[in-house]
Amino acid sequence: MFEHEFLSVESSARVSDVVELLYDRALTSVVVHDEDEDDFYVVPAGDIAASAQAGDDTMGTLLGHMRLDPVAAVEVGPVAEAPALRTTGETVLLADGVVRTVVGERTVRRNGGGGQDNGDDGLPLGVAVEYPESVVVGETVSLLISLTGDATSEDAIPIVAALGDAIDIVVSPKVGFVVAGRAQGRLVVGSEPDPLPLQIQLTATALGLSRVVIYAFRDTEALGSLTIAPEVVTADAATAARPAASRTELASAGPAGADLELVIFEQPTAAGERQLLFRLSSPGAPSLGLNLRPFGPITLGGGGPGPYFTELYKQIERLRLTTESEREAATQRLHAVGSELFSTLIPPELQTLLWELKERIATVWVQSEEPWIPWEICRLQGKQDGRVEEGQFFCEAFEFARWIPGIPRLPEVRLTNIGLIVPPGSGLTSAAGEAAMLHALAGPSRQVADVTPTYVGVRNALSAGTLDGIHFAGHGVFPDQSNPSKAEIELDGGQSLRPTDISGNVSNLGLAKPIVFLNACQAGRQSRGLTGVGGWAAALLRAGASAFVGAHWEVDDDLACRFATAFYDGLLGGATIAGATRAARLGVRAAGDPTWLAYTLFADPTAKVVES
Q1: Where is the CHAT domain positioned along the sequence (predicted)?
Q2: Measured between alpha carbons, how far is 215 from 220 in angstroms, rounded to an integer?
């Protein structure tokens, strides 16, 4: 049994008035008295809000559109006969399917064994953001963030929440502003009649259109984000019309989330540097008690992470593996790289916590706004008896996956219709074997078909929107770290495909929510594009792909084929997609050869193949 508040109204009440009352009181259910039939009905707040948008006039009209069974009305006299209630005025109590008119607090009681029912009881709300149309460069202004009953406003993040829900807010400037003070805060639904808005101060640093993203979370669930773009102007410039804000959903881990979820925000500083802010949650391991716990910031110095990682990948690709001595040296070099990334990019307190938890967690999911860092190859380390002790790479120790904030996650994957793209002139000796392996997956419930490996052939196949698996085996290049739109996979006849080609009707590929595996060198790299993260992963996930697999650097042809084979074997054998990826890594791990560390997975780590 559990309790939540509700509102009691007559059927003649206007729907719009009821919605306003629901928001003002942060209530989640309505008991409607049908005055004509003298019946009582229980209606979830969400249905009433939807009815208001549909144009229903009165609650009686709404009841006429719904198929609800009335509940019996039983008169109860003095409040002593309902001792759980506190005397606050006449209302209605619903208990065990019976509505009782009592003198007491507005409370609904239901059978159900405790816990909050978020399915029907949530009230549509908005996280509203007030911000100026323009800001003078150098000036500090406040964003005012509050809860509103209008979930449709262009300046609000639509959410569904219940009384008492705590909504965590994180503000992350991208262009034109830096945070002056705290970057986060909390709003509580129905905490007080007229709560003060949350204030986040920003200082304008660069002329032109800015970009600031406001994220909303509830517990470990990411609810959505709002991107605003005030114009930063000189003191004598005229105020321009405010650009429209844009809303996106964050990837929500849902009930079966990873043991650890790490959300990494990137923001500029007043000194022109970039900072990383970390928030750690434990949805799949609630006993750890982590809920958006903040760590950092970490300041990225030098010429920026792009050139640093371009050079790092070149160093990895140049590792010599001819002799046993060279392979041992390469292994040690990779260990050093991973340890350096862990010690410099992970905040010290978070380093200690991850080291302490390494034996207690299995699945890690990273949502990161920055595009450059290969989080997979950070290598755990800690101290034992005063001595530094090295652990495993993230992707070795955990079932590890990544995602891009702002793109809705897809918790299910399918492989019923696979398109195979293998250019015949690639010269890769294992490409034919990889193609044969894919074709062998065909069966009564799974089709595998060759896609004509030309520019037109591939675009036509993708635009059909029927492939729920897309596999490419061939060459890839990422020639310009400063321009991810130049990344290519090489097709037949000297033709190529770029991330910018995933546009127009080709974005229909997302209709089938495919797993996309680009088994090509450098196809997993990302960089900063025109409006955010750029590269193959970002382009395909934004188009609707459920998962992406690619390599950060050049990979060995034979090991790449063996990795793909193990990946599909695990996935179709019932493993989670992150579990299949980890098993495939470990299955091709060879002394010194960095191929097993090269792959990156963007997916819900707990997703499994669903057979249609």
Answers
A1: 336-590
A2: 13
